[in-house]
Amino acid sequence: MKRIVLIGYMGAGKTTVGRQLALDLGLNFYDLDWYIEMRYHTTVAQIFAEKGEEGFREIERNMLHEVAEFEDVVLSCGGGTPCFFDNMEYLNTLAETVYLKCAPEVLAMHLKMGKVERPLIKGKSDEELLAYIKESLAKREPYYSKAKHVLDVSLLDNYEKIKTTIKLLKDTLGIEEGKAPLCS
Ligand code: S3P
User: Fold this and answer.
1) Strand pairing partners for 7?
2) What local confidence, expressed as pLDDT, does residue 160 receive?
3) Ligand 1 in contact with 33 (CB < 6 A)?
């Protein structure tokens, strides 16, 4: 049974890396935000608008408990998932957790280019965005750092680098080329 969970700030590339890693290892891929949207037939932005962040975090925790029990999967969490309730401890008991670490300036660049509507950063100017990322990343870092593995993905900006990152990730997780991953 294999279970790999990717965590990290918005814009770090959790979904891009997770999807590619799952393909590479022949595992199913889940993105927690997409799973929430599918189960609730609405968008994360709409949930924030209707129930506020507190309401979203409750839903997020409940959905995490559903999806994190699946076997033979790579799961990408939302940027805030590890920082609420006992979500990080819960994940560490179930899976190989990996923190995709990324520099604030790179996160800001990815988020500016991104098409997904992210309620927490909506309407911010470039300066406000960078200041917000720096401040909230500092608060989140202690939670992210509880992951069993850390991988710096600050240089993840083209397909070749994604492939290199997957290779590094497999090394970090102790997965040899062509072999099934060893997980808890
Ligand atoms: C959030 C990150 C988002 C999404 C929600 C809140 C956060 O996921 O869960 O908008 O608190 O950082 P991504 O990290 O996939 O953008």
Assistant:
1) 99
2) 74
3) yes
